[in-house]
């Protein structure tokens, strides 16, 4: 499980611009439980230190979450300097053990609202090394969708998408990936939304 997480951390293009700390969190059983460990790390992120802490809490029912930064093109709307800039953007790198409950039963309205796991494990009965799942929260979808009201938006957003796809392809080459899922909090099909936006810009 942690070998796969280590590969994700070592392939991820951490921000070179942010002065802000990253935070590593470990949760056990489900997200409604208190955080087991929470450690801030100033940049650059010390990956070996993060992994050493994770190994101290290595269990099949654990979730490891590094809240950190990477650099994306974003439009700065400052009146005196309105232009596209590389700006640190929030991202979370997560690893779920196969026994971590992604749908905790004690949350309010959990019985009334249909929920699905963040990731359904392909082989939940296998051991942690084979059954773990990795998740990357890339942040708001506006960073990856053309914004017609902004100058040069298609080109700059395309650069952000290329950064995302390069990471995905690097992970595909380094990990035993069985399934990939692109998901958004709105529940919409983001791939379809992106295709429609890009088609509209092209027209």
Write up this protein.
- The chain is α+β, with helices and mostly antiparallel strands.
- A 5-stranded antiparallel beta sheet has the order 2-1-3-4-5.
- The protein has helices at about 1-10, 45-55, 130, 155-175, 190-200, and strands spanning about 20-30, 35-40, 60-75, 85-95, 135.
- Residues about 105-130 have low confidence and may be disordered.
Would you report the number of β strands?
A: 5
| Morphology | globular
Helix content: 25-40%
Q: How far is the N terminus from the C terminus?
A: 45 Å
Mean pLDDT value: 82
Structural class: alpha+beta
Which characteristics define this entry?
single chain; 203 residues; alpha+beta; 5-stranded antiparallel sheet; 5 strands; 23% strand; globular
Helix/strand layout:
Layout: H1 2-11, E1 22-28, E2 37-41, H2 47-56, E3 62-76, E4 83-96, H3 128-131, E5 133-137, H4 153-174, H5 190-202
Antiparallel strand pairs: 1-2, 1-3, 3-4, 4-5
Helix pairs in contact: 1-2
In brief:
The chain has 203 residues and is α+β, with helices and mostly antiparallel strands. The chain is built from five helices and five strands.
